[in-house]
Amino acid sequence: MSDNVFFRIVRLSLIILIILVIVYGYYLHTKGALLPFMMKTVLPNLLKIIKDYGIVIIIVISIFSFGFYCGKRHGSKSGNSRTR
Which tens digit of pLDDT belongs to each residue from 51-76? Predict the structure, then answer.
């Protein structure tokens, strides 16, 4: 029972964090500072992450896509598929 409460608290805190990020983005948008903020902070960090971990990102996306399409193709042939 305590595990269930822990995950509910984590889920609630993540929802609150997402809401705060959206509200802060809207605030920056109304002040006209959203684009400069994105260009100054997010873009350089995003480019650094893509440069450092680009090959890992490509491999993970490829493996996920391969598994998804193969599972979708083979899942529709079997009679015990749990998806619609």
Answer: 889 899 899 999 999 988 888 777 65
In order, the DSSP letters of 35-80 are: HHHIIIIIHHHHHHHHHHHHHHHHHHHHHHHHHHHHHHHHHHHSTT
Judge if pTM exceeds 0.90.
no
Asked whether the beta carbons of 28 and 34 are under 8 A apart, the reply is yes
Contact present, 28 and 37 (Cβ < 8 Å): yes
- Cα–Cα–Cα angle for 33, 37, 43, rounded to 5 degrees: 145
